[in-house]
Amino acid sequence: MSEFWIYFQIGLKHVLDIYAYDHVLFLIALAVPFSFKDWPRIVFLITLFTIGHTLALLLSVFGIIAIKVNVVELLIPITILITALFNLFTAGKSSKKESVNLIFFITLFFGIIHGLGFSNYFKSILGGSTTSKLLPLGEFALGIEAAQIIVVFVVLVLSYIVQTVFRFSKRDWTLVMSAFIIGVVLPMIIENKIWIR
Question: Distance (Å, rounded) from C-alpha 45 to C-alpha 39?
């Protein structure tokens, strides 16, 4: 049980680390257009993200996939930017249902990209044979899922407060938060080491 708690905590800290806030930014961008009535759908989305994240780690642990760190560090803020831009263009529109499958696929794919960003560190903390890494990987994934649910719950509570107490419309809240996220991730993209020759 103590080993379970170790990897579970690593998963929690991976998402909730204040210095590695890109994961939280993505979750905010993903959750901001939703409200509590959409809880099952948003939980399904973050579970898809966790599956993608875990799949990337699994492929990396087994040596099936490897990608340069600089490329992943560029792709992660790009996924956040795309999600926030999607919110800007769809905020307040009621015809979101036709793009549900696309959102599910993109969330899974973005989870893979974010997982690749953590794969080198994760491999370095795991000892033993490749098959003995499967259980810690599952424990880590549960920690990620729990942390993501916490972040999304906080976003939904803030969203509720802003919309009821401060009388923001859902559309305005989505636009403001998405614009804020874009303002945070653009420098991350521009200052990426990949541009330095």
Answer: 10
Amino acid at 189: I
Task: Quote the CA–CA distance of 118 and 114 in Å, as a whole number.
Answer: 7
Q: Which amino acid is at 95?
A: S
Q: Which residue is it, tokens 């490897």? A: 66
In this predicted model, what pLDDT tens digit does every residue of 16-31 receive, in sequence order? 998 889 999 999 999 9
DSSP state of 108: H
pTM: 0.92
The per-residue b/e assignment along 148-162, b for 16 or more CB within 10 angstroms, e otherwise, is bbebbeebbeebeeb
Q: Which two tokens stand for residue 114?
A: 């974010």
- What is the distance between the alpha carbons of residues 195 and 60, in angstroms, rounded to a whole number? 25
Token digits of residue 26: 């993505």
Nearest to 18 by CA among 151, 146, 177: 151
How far apart (Å, rounded) are the C-alpha atoms in residues 1 and 5? 6
Residues 188, 64 contacting (CB under 8 angstroms): no
